[in-house]
Each structure stands twice: as structure tokens, then as C-alpha cells.
Amino acid sequence: MAQLALDLQFRPALGRSDFVVSDSNRDAVAWLDRWPDWPGQVLAIHGPTGCGKTHLAHVWQTRSQASFVTEIDAGTLQPGAAVILDEPSLWSSDADAARARQTALFHFLNRLRELRGSLLLLHREAPARWPVSLPDLASRLAAIPAIAVAPPDDTLLAAVLTKHFADRQLAVGDEVIDFLVRHIERDFAVAAATVAAIDQAALSSRRRITLQLVRQVVLQPQAE
Question: What is the pTM of this model?
Fold first, then answer.
């Protein structure tokens, strides 16, 4: 009988010491290390979902005491504030609502500069590519330094996989990591989902995580 695998939540490690620097993210790390010497006091990091943007933001948060902000409201900013905006919502099928959101961000950026604060923007696309309709905001966004986090190389993908297993308090052999690097898509979100699927399979079958189990999890969907 298969064991019922509980959907347990786990807390990922987000410290500087467990963030692996490789060619994929080296530029982003270097720019974060330059803080507070950012042009215009704003930096954007962009890349695909799961590429490590949030991890980088948490590393910077520890250093700068920054706060993650969900509401773009210039009135809430404090002098010298350091803030993080993750995927700000600036678009809407309602043109008036979209313009209101974009106007709010424009005032937010202006107020932040007046208060000599710092802003880290996280998004899938560089701000200069955001389809905003407000010309003043478009000009401001185009001037923000935007650093891409590239798809992972072998070294980084292996490190990310190892980290996801470790975050779940799972120890696996090098042969498991090597196999996954060679067989899964080079995508951080896929890496996270694959580790979750392997953990689930091990729990439900009451088996250790071996290369045989990993092969079944990764290759079985391709055989169907």
C-alpha cells in the first residue's frame, strides 16, 4: 500500500552563504554588491520564473534591511527606505485602472528619490520593455539599470538542485544530481518542481531517494 504523502511546507534557505555565483547570475550579484551606489538609487533584476531573483532579493534584504512592498503608495515611504517590488502590477483591461497604477509608480519613484531611498525591482522583463502608456514613467523605467539572470549552466543547475533537496532536509548522491542535470529542462522552476515530485514519490512509496527512483519520476512521463 502506498503511503499518503502529506503536502508539508518547507522553509527554503535564503542566506548569502548558500547562494551559488556562476556565469548565469554573476552580473546581478556584482550589482547588488555595489549598493548603495546605484544610478538613480534603483536597480532592476529580471529573468524567468524560478531563476533566483527572489533569493537575490532576500540576500540584499539582509544587508539593507529592505522591506518587500505589495502596495505602490508613495505616502508610505520613509526617509532612506530600502524597498523591494516583486512583479509590480501595472496593467489592467481597464485603461483608467492601468493609468492609475502607472501614475502611482511614477510618484513612488519620485518620492523615493526625494527621500534618498533605494528600490530593487524584480520582474520577468526589463523595465524598459514594460508596455506602459504613461510617457513620463516609460522614460523613467528606461533609465533604470536592468540586469538579467540568465538560464542556469551545469554548475548552477546542480547547485540549485542540491539546494532544493537540502531545503527539504534530503540527502542525495552525486549520481542523482548528475542525472538530473542531464535530463531535466534548464529552468529553475522545473528544477524545483522535479525535486518536489521526487520527494513526493519517495514519501508515497516509502523508499529512499535513489537513482532508480529518480529515473522513474523523471523518465516515466516521457514513456506515456
Answer: 0.77
